[in-house]
Amino acid sequence: MKGLFKKLFGGKTAVTIVSGLPRSGTSMMMKMLEAGGIHPLTDKVRTADDDNPKGYYEFERVKKMDKGDTAWMAEAQGKSVKVISQLLRHLPADYTYKVIFMRRNMAEILASQKKMLVNRGEDPNQASDEEIAGLFEKHLGNVMNWLASQPNVSVLYVHYSDMLTNPEPQVAQINQFLGGNLNTEAMAEVVDPNLYRNRKKSLNKEAT
Question: Model's pTM, two decimal places?
Answer without folding.
Answer: 0.80
